[in-house]
Design goal:
The complex is a heterodimer of chains A (628) and B (126).
Chain A (H helix, E strand, L loop, with lengths): L29 H27 L1 E4 L2 E4 H9 E6 L6 E2 L5 E13 L6 H15 L3 H9 L6 E4 L4 H12 L8 E10 L7 H4 L11 H5 L1 H5 L3 E6 L12 E4 L6 E4 L3 H18 L3 E8 L5 E7 L12 H5 L15 H11 L8 E3 L2 E4 L2 E4 L7 E3 L1 H7 L2 H11 L1 H10 L28 H7 L9 H12 L3 E3 L4 E6 L2 E4 L4 E4 L3 H17 L2 H8 L14 E10 L5 E14 L6 E8 L8 H18 L17 E4 L3
Parallel strand pairs in A: 4-10
Antiparallel strand pairs in A: 1-2, 3-8, 4-5, 5-6, 5-7, 8-9, 10-18, 11-12, 11-23, 13-16, 14-15, 17-20, 18-19, 21-22, 22-23
Helix pairs in contact in A: 3-4, 9-19, 11-13, 11-14, 11-17, 12-17, 13-15
Chain B lengths: L9 H17 L3 H57 L1 H10 L11 E4 L14
The chains are: A alpha+beta (628), B mainly alpha (126).
């Protein structure tokens, strides 16, 4: 009955009846029920309040005030940084030059390892890591830290063995952890190291392309905010907030693997033969400004760059170090003179072997007179006295204006970090005197980077048009790529001027051909440096400043800069050898390197030889008709 | 207020029991409470089942993430092996070890195709 105030309870089974036959009844007062309910609710409420109060309390834990609620939240909630993968660097053929992989570290928490266990663990670890057990035991028992890296970058199979053992619940490696960190790998080792640079343990590029393009190579880190389980894995049903990582952009360089390998091999051989201190070879695509090879020694292994002095891995000798170009600069002098009209290709000056200027006696390398010389002959004989007089004919203002137009004294803008500007004194510079112009004419008293000089020579090869040198051909995110467009900077000299200098440089190159050919042909006269082709080149021997206002007496820099073929040139090549021991002038060392590279490049580009351009004893390569 | 009970004859007792049974089954106000409790229990069961399923899926997802990380590492290792095998210097060294060498000048033959017949040469002779 809904309106009754008491309830009759009857059990499912028949209750024993009273003697009078009446069914026994259970009377539960509604008030009592209510009281019990309220009491239970009150107890539960109290427990709840107590729990909430407890979690909000701040307690002392190990001498530190800790808010329990915050502590619990920190225990469960996690904010994980998702590291982006650094972009891959490839050469123009698609070979990987730099890539990032996840590589394992072996770490331990010494506070979880007892002394008794440390000895066993040290033996086990020592066996798989190849480390002395005593050294490992000392590391395992030093409990001053809860995180100790036993070894970085272990072999993946070693890490897998440890992980499998741990997963199987074995005690062999109990207390050991395997952590994975991103590691930059350079599969080709030291090849191209100077231009690639390196990446430090924090993932930052420290030199070369790695440093220049660090922002786009490194990508953007992502963040995952989530509740985690005991294994630090995000709980699927918990709240998660994910900002995905953006991986770095891949770079495809202009470097050609064949040409780079060729340049490195020839340079290594020359330096080994001469016991030289080092050297540089640059091969530049004349028409685009793309750098096809940039080799330098001493080099380093970017995989272990920390083992080398900072001066070796931080500075690319091709772009960051300057030297006095010596006689190679005379080609620039000739171009400036013809462009400004201060002299023509027929103008002659008297080379007396020595000449006095401003209280100094200046002279040719051998102090020998060559008589009346045109600019072409000045290059042919590499006459300092003639160059000095031609520089003076140009005059200070025009000379330095064109030195600037050729890009000396300012960065080329190449995409490599730490590019040097070079040192060019001008009348506006402190301490300048007129003798500076005279010596600058033959390439002393002015400092340039190898890249500046080869670019200037490429400008002459490219009929006077200067191109911006560049090293990155394409930037790719997945399949989407952006190509670098070759950029002409300016017309430095007129095409006819450039072509006139090109012809002069062919004679200059052939003048030095006997360095390579005399032993083969048995003849010491001028011949073709590369049989079958007209190749342009100028040699140089530069003194090395001693830092005290003078020059070193026991070493020189031998160099050659030129291009091939001379007409419609494809490649500009610079070879520089630092302090060759057996060759007092350096030229005899640099010319064979230049010759070998130029010859291989002509073959590589399938440029057919001209049989008429071969001297006695030379073979130019046979030209066969397609339909005899 | 208690219900007065009185002694009844067996037939009357049966009739009274039958009448009381209906009252017992109707449960009066308690019926709603029990239904609510059952509904609550069912909802809890459902929620528990869903939570359990979600947790299982979450665990599977976490396991897959771990598996994915392992596979990515293996891919990285394989890519590295590939890159090392494709390094130009390595190829050149292997070629030299196999006795290969660049052609000498007298071995070179250049064929000039600039004025050759542009008609394609049939691949299969009739």
């Amino acid at each position: 009955m809904r309106h009754s105030r008491t309830y009759t309870y009857r059990p499912a089974r028949a209750a024993p009846r009273r003697a009078d036959g009446a069914v026994p009844s259970l009377h539960i007062s509604r008030m009592r029920l209510l009281i019990v309910l309220v009491a239970v609710a009150a107890i539960m409420l109290r427990v709840g309040i107590q729990l909430v109060t407890l979690t909000g309390e701040t307690v002392e834990l190990n001498g530190t005030s800790v808010n329990l609620r915050q502590m619990a939240r920190n225990e469960v909630n996690s904010r994980q940084v998702i590291e982006p993968t650094r972009g891959v660097i490839r050469d123009r053929a698609g070979n990987t030059l730099a890539m990032s992989i996840e590589a394992p570290w072996i770490v331990v928490d010494p506070t979880t390892i007892s002394d008794a266990r440390a000895a066993d663990l040290a033996r086990e670890l020592g066996g798989v890591l190849g480390m002395p057990a005593a050294e490992l035991e000392a590391m395992l028992t030093d409990r001053t830290t809860r995180y100790r890296v036993i070894r970085r970058w272990v072999d993946p199979s070693t890490a897998r063995a440890i992980l499998e053992s741990l997963a199987a619940g074995e005690m062999r490696f109990s207390g050991v952890f395997v952590e994975y960190h991103q590691r930059r790998i350079y599969p080709a080792g030291p090849s191209g190291a100077a231009l690639l640079g390196a990446v430090n343990d924090e993932g930052t590029g420290v030199a070369g392309v790695e440093a220049y393009y660090d922002d786009i190579l490194r990508g953007r880190a992502g963040i995952l905010t989530a509740e985690i389980d005991a294994r630090a894995q995000p709980i699927g049903i918990g709240q998660q907030e994910l900002r995905a990582a953006n991986d770095g952009i891949d770079l495809e360089l202009t470097i050609d693997p064949f040409i780079q390998s060729l340049a490195e091999r020839e340079l290594e051989q020359a330096i080994a033969i001469q016991s030289a201190d080092g050297g540089v070879v640059i091969v530049l695509d004349v028409q685009s400004g793309a750098i096809r090879a940039m080799a330098s020694l001493p080099s380093f292994d970017p995989n272990e760059y920390q083992q080398y002095p900072a001066s070796v891995y931080n500075l690319n000798p091709a772009t960051s170090q300057v030297y006095e170009p010596g006689s190679t600069f005379k080609a620039i002098l000739a171009a400036i003179g013809l462009q400004t009209g201060r002299f023509s290709a027929d103008t002659q000056v008297d080379d007396t072997g020595e000449i006095d200027r401003y209280g100094y006696r200046l002279g040719n390398w051998n102090r020998m007179a060559n008589g009346l010389l045109t600019p072409g002959r000045m290059l042919y004989y590499s006459s300092n006295v003639a160059a000095l007089q031609f520089a003076e004919m140009i005059g200070t203002e025009s000379f330095y204006e064109y030195v600037d137009r050729f890009g000396f004294g300012r960065p080329t803008g190449v995409d490599i970090s730490a590019e040097a500007t070079g040192i060019v004194s001008s009348p506006a510079s402190a301490g300048w005197s007129p003798i500076v112009l005279s010596t600058n004419g033959y390439g002393q008293g002015i400092a340039v980077t190898p890249l500046q000089l080869v670019r200037a020579m490429a400008t002459i090869a490219n009929d006077g048009v200067m191109m911006r040198p560049y090293l990155v051909e394409r930037r790719c995110r997945g399949a989407e790529c952006v190509s670098t467009q070759p950029r002409a900077i300016k017309q430095v000299v007129a095409p006819d001027v450039a072509q006139a200098v090109q012809r002069m440089l062919v004679e200059s190159a052939n003048h030095y051909a006997p360095v390579v050919w005399s032993e083969i042909t048995g003849q010491g006269g001028d011949t073709w440096l590369v049989p079958g082709y007209e190749v342009a080149a100028k040699t140089g021997t530069s003194s090395i400043p001693n830092g005290r206002g003078g020059y070193e007496t026991d070493g020189v820099i031998g160099s050659v800069v030129g291009f091939a073929p001379a007409k419609q040139a494809r490649y500009a090549i610079l070879v520089k050898i630092d302090r060759p021991r057996r060759d007092p002038w350096g030229v005899d060392t640099a010319i064979p390197v230049f010759q070998a590279i130029a010859e291989q490049l002509m073959r590589y580009e399938h440029i057919p030889p001209d049989a008429a351009l071969a001297g006695p004893g030379q073979i130019a390569g046979e030209l066969v008709a397609a339909h005899p | 207020m208690a219900v007065n009970l009185r002694r009844l004859l067996p037939l009357q007792q049966m009739r009274a029991s039958r009448r009381a049974l209906a009252s017992y089954l109707t449960l009066d106000g308690g019926r709603t409470l029990i239904l609510a409790a059952i509904a609550f229990a069912l909802m809890s069961l459902l929620t528990l089942a869903q939570t359990g399923r979600s947790a299982t899926l979450g665990q599977e997802l976490a396991d897959l993430e771990v598996q994915r990380a392992v596979l990515l590492r293996e891919r990285g290792d394989l890519s590295l092996q590939l890159a090392e095998a494709q390094a130009f210097r390595g190829i050149a060294d292997r070629a030299a070890a196999d006795g290969l060498r660049p052609a000498t000048r007298d071995q070179l033959r250049y064929i000039d195709l600039s004025d050759a017949d542009p008609t394609p040469i049939p691949l299969v002779t009739p």
